[in-house]
Amino acid sequence: MPGHIRIVNDPVELVPLLMTFNDPSFKKVYELLSKNWMTEEELGSQADAGVVGLCLEVLKKGNLIEEQWRMPRPGKKPEKEFRATYNKFRANFQCNLQDLSDILYVALSNDESLRSSVERVEEELSGGNSSINDLSRKLGVSAVFIKGLAKRTPQLDVKGQGLVRLDTGR
Length: 170
What we know:
Number of helices: 8
Shape: globular
CATH class of the largest domain: Mainly Alpha
Distance between the termini: 26 Å
Radius of gyration: 17 Å
Number of domains: 2
Structural class: alpha+beta
CATH architecture of the largest domain: Orthogonal Bundle
Number of strands: 7
CATH superfamily of the largest domain: Winged helix-like DNA-binding domain superfamily/Winged helix DNA-binding domain
Oligomer: single chain
Strand order of the largest sheet: 2-4-3
Strand content: 15-25%
Mean pLDDT: 91
Helix content: 40-55%
């Protein structure tokens, strides 16, 4: 994979990157995937098996890994295998420091208030409100904060100017 560069045009795309490289277990999974194609089971045998699934979800949302089906031995089921897509990084954006501080807080914090913010966003989504701007007004936070929460949360993602629920059943 020499020469594959992850170009980040939206600062919110930093959230999965920062989450991955701020957690030693996630970083280990990424390092393993940067060397070889590996299944989830193989990753679990060499890294913390308890976080491999969540790590793969974060890496997928950040478009940092690719997947394919591994051809099984006769009589076995096919398995998905993964590998890192990029080995270089380039940032191509400008943002104000308030937005950058929101991104860093969302990506790196383990603050309990993040959990309550995610719960409030999910309640609003259940009520039919998916607009990022409406959600940011109702919660009293920036639109970048809402987008960052969606990038951090496995069951949410950003689509256009709104949030959507993802099917995380793998």
